[in-house]
């Protein structure tokens, strides 16, 4: 009977480790795709603005792609949270980076759509002060999300440790 418990514990540990490595791989894949999308946004910004009417479909596709990428990223992170680490990285640091990617990409997409709307309506580029103000509005939102993440992770770990200690 004792041997059965050891086998079960070993299987659970190996399962946690496998899910941690899977989560790490998904998260890193999401990070690479997010960086590629950011580079694409930066490189094609001018062509998107000056052919804005023709590229609305492309912008919407880009927004959908970034949402899917960030969904994969956060799914990988959530998969690894129970283990507490992601490969060699702490899960909270990786989640913070994931949320930063999410807000940067969302801000870029929103600013592209805002500038496209301004270009079509007024036939000139959006003033840079509006772009700066709109971009800076997302900084406090990002800080709040990261803070709430740290609070939820610390309470999750506290509950997990208390439940684990009660079972021993």
Give the structure's gist in a few sentences.
The chain is mainly α. It has helices at residues 2-43, 45-50, 56-81, 91-122, 128-136, 138-167, and strands at 85-86, 89-90. It is flat.
What does the model show?
Keywords: Membrane, Transmembrane, Transmembrane helix. This is G-protein coupled receptors family 1 profile domain-containing protein. The chain is mainly alpha-helical and 168 residues long. It has six helices and two strands, in the order H-H-H-E-E-H-H-H. Strands 1-2 form a two-stranded antiparallel sheet.
N-to-C order of helices and strands: HHHEEHHH
Strand order of the largest sheet: 1-2
Poorly predicted spans: 49-54
Number of domains: 1
Helix content: over 70%
**Main sheet record:** 2 strands, antiparallel
Count of extended strands: 2
Strand content: under 5%
The averaged pLDDT comes out at: 62
Form type: flat
* End-to-end Cα distance: 17 Å
Please tally the helical runs, counting DSSP H or I stretches of 4 or more residues. 6
Q: What value does the Rg take, in angstroms?
A: 21 Å
* SS class: mainly alpha
């Amino acid at each position: 009977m004792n041997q059965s418990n050891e086998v079960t514990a070993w299987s659970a540990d190996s399962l946690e480790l496998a899910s941690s490595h899977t989560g790490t791989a998904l998260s890193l894949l999401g990070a690479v795709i997010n960086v590629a999308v950011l580079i694409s946004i930066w490189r094609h910004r001018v062509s998107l603005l000056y052919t804005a009417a023709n590229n609305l479909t492309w912008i919407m596709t880009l927004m959908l792609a970034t949402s899917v990428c960030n969904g994969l990223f956060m799914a990988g992170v959530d998969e690894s949270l129970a283990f507490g680490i992601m490969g060699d990285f702490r899960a909270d640091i990786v989640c913070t980076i994931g949320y930063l990617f999410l807000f940067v990409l969302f801000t870029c997409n929103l600013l592209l759509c805002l500038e496209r709307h301004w270009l079509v309506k007024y036939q000139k580029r959006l003033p840079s002060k509006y772009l700066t103000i709109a971009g800076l509005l997302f900084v406090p939102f990002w800080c709040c999300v990261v803070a709430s993440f740290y609070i939820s992770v610390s309470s999750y770990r506290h509950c997990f440790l208390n439940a684990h200690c009660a079972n021993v």
